[in-house]
Amino acid sequence: MDKLVIEGGKPLSGTIVIQGAKNAALPILAASMLVEGKVTIDHVPKLLDIDVMLNILRELGCRAEHEDETVQLDTSTLHSSHIPEALMRQMRSSIFLMGPLLARFGEVTIYQPGGCAIGERKIDLHLSGLQALGAEIEEDGSRIACYAKKLRGAEIHLDFPSVGATENIMMAAVLAEGLTTISNAAREPEIQDLQHFLNRMGAKIIGAGTDTITVEGVEKLEPCSYQVIPDRIVTGTVMVAAAATRGQVTLLNTCPSHLTSLIHVLRRTGVQIAVDGDIIKVGAAMRPKSIDRIVTSPYPAFPTDLQSQIMVLLALADGVSVMKETIFEGRFKHVDELARMGADIRVDLSSAFIRGVSRLYGATVEATDLRAGAALVIAGLAAQGKTVVEQVHHIDRGYDRIEAMFGRLGARMTRFTPIANNTVVP
Ligand code: EPZ
């Protein structure tokens, strides 16, 4: 398992171009299965999660190439809608394939994706949404078989604005007979990107980005080319790292409007943020101020995917901050690792009480999940001394060579890969 060795204490500085959004690319790759032919998707970063999704599509018979951030798909040879359990377990986002494969083949077999480090990750809203569209679902242990001769439009209300369930239902509804409305839909920018992609293929969807999405079923879709939006969570991760190291960083190819809640919080800590089109400039020279209370909630509120990262900045702030996590029940696993670096954080159920300290110290820490790992990298960049981050594969799921990304901003960060005889090579 790879490790990252970070020499901390150096302010980040320079300019960086932000990668395409993992959480937009994954559903868009799945949605490509709705159409027969060649689909080209640009701005798709090289990530473990993208690799897993492309391997699943190949397993189902699709041709898939990924070169220089461009994915070329040929779905005309797609011949199966049975997703192997081993591949499902590698990445829970394979659940996004349910809607498209059911719509295309009239049947799909998946396996319970199971929970992960951050929580139970139920899929009941996905299944009930597909049932509302006319699907029959048979569960046999972890195996879930889904059938529908013809999907029919329906009025669907989500008890919780689930991102994945909203996307799965949208994708299943585009070829259904009649009108589908999804109320209490998730409003994330990635859902708007999915709507734009599906409409480019000839779908008739309106409302993505609001809490009510309407889909008018069509007979057929046509292949297209598309470019994915920038990754707002990677953008936010770099912004927080710039602030935590008291650096000066310019971020290019961003969507500032996707980050209003983070920009608001960073400004409250005293960080200077300037926005000009798709450019964000971040500057910090002083110790950050604490924030009384931050609550993670569905978009456009403060995103759960930036909770662990902002906690590192608050761990260095002058005062006490309170962070409440309302989306995932297990998303504080980075706290113990930060404590090993000198952070003073107490967790009580879904709240973390963060008493800022003047500095963090390098230590050997372990990434437990994707965003917790990113937070530990930020902590290593800000800390005095050397930090070793282990289990880096979690980070590689969402960041394209994070050591190169931060290296472009002057970070002293090296990846070590163990080889057979247990020595390591940079
Ligand atoms: C998406 O996950 C993102 N992943 C997550 O990003 C993100 O944290 C999450 O949305 C929330 O914004 C992708 O887009 C690939 P949800 P998703 O369905 O769709 C409960 C990252 O770091 N729920 O909105 O799985 C669920 O248990 C990842 O990039 C049900 O109860 O999120 C959770 O508590 C992590 N039943 C809450 O809703 C369901 O059927 C949010 O889940 C579905 C979800």
From TrEMBL:
InterPro entries: Enolpyruvate_Tfrase_dom (IPR001986), Enolpyruvate_Tfrase_sf (IPR036968), MurA_subfamily (IPR050068), RNA3'P_cycl/enolpyr_Trfase_a/b (IPR013792), UDP_GlcNAc_COvinyl_MurA (IPR005750). Pathway: Cell wall biogenesis; peptidoglycan biosynthesis. UDP-N-acetyl-alpha-D-glucosamine binds at residues 92, 305, 327. Its main location: cytoplasm. The keyword Cell wall biogenesis/degradation applies. Its EC number is 2.5.1.7. GO terms for molecular function: UDP-N-acetylglucosamine 1-carboxyvinyltransferase activity. Cell wall formation. Adds enolpyruvyl to UDP-N-acetylglucosamine. This is UDP-N-acetylglucosamine 1-carboxyvinyltransferase. It comes from Paenibacillus lycopersici. The lineage of its organism: Bacteria, Bacillati, Bacillota, Bacilli, Bacillales.
